[in-house]
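Protein record
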Amino acid sequence: MKVLLVEDEFLIALTMETTLSDAGYTVLGPVATVARALELARQDIPDLALVDINVRDGGSGIELAREMHSRWMVPVLFVSGQRMDALANRDVALGFIGKPFEAAAMLAGVRVVQHLLEKRPPPPPESPRALELFGQLG
């Protein structure tokens, strides 16, 4: 599974990248801007995007999620400290993982989302407390 990482905090991005790579995921990025995220997605459409809501250069992870969904139907999981913004924009994301988070909880959240995206028969992996699912995208 290819996962696009959009995170502008270097240590968080590095932790996410290492955790996902070690678990066998193909990681695109990490990138810190909306423009770079769209460029990477255009080159290699991801199966899932983990997107911070506030990214470098004043970019909006919410607008990025809208763009990736409308262009390529890429599902997004917001990874951010902006819970209220995430909830207000639940129409463009599958869910939310709040910062700060533990790497294991982020990985468990990705596994739950992967399970749902692949439409595997129940039961899904145990959902970590850090993951808040919004439901299906339209």
